[in-house]
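Support request, please re-run this one:
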Amino acid sequence: ELLDLQVEHQQLQDMYRQSTEKASSYEATDAEQKVAMEGLIQENQALREHIATNDLAKENDLLRSRLEQSGNKLRETLERTQKWEQQANLCRLELDFKTQALVAS
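Re-run finished. Output below.
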């Protein structure tokens, strides 16, 4: 019976040792997972910032394009206005010339 108790005691010690080894292994794995998770969180944040930066760059490109289009339309309008002013000045000169000719006759 003493021998059975010693064998059972040895088996229980082996089981305890295996349990503590597994627990240590799980703790190490848990710590590694925490480090990996922190790395993933940081990578995720960096990606979010990169996406936000890209979104801002795209928005800036769009605004730049709209500004350029607006500038082109403004230039076209200015050119048309200048042509109309030139035509109006020519008409005024012609009218002045004809008025003077009429007064002279």
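The mean pLDDT is 87. The chain has one helix and no strands.
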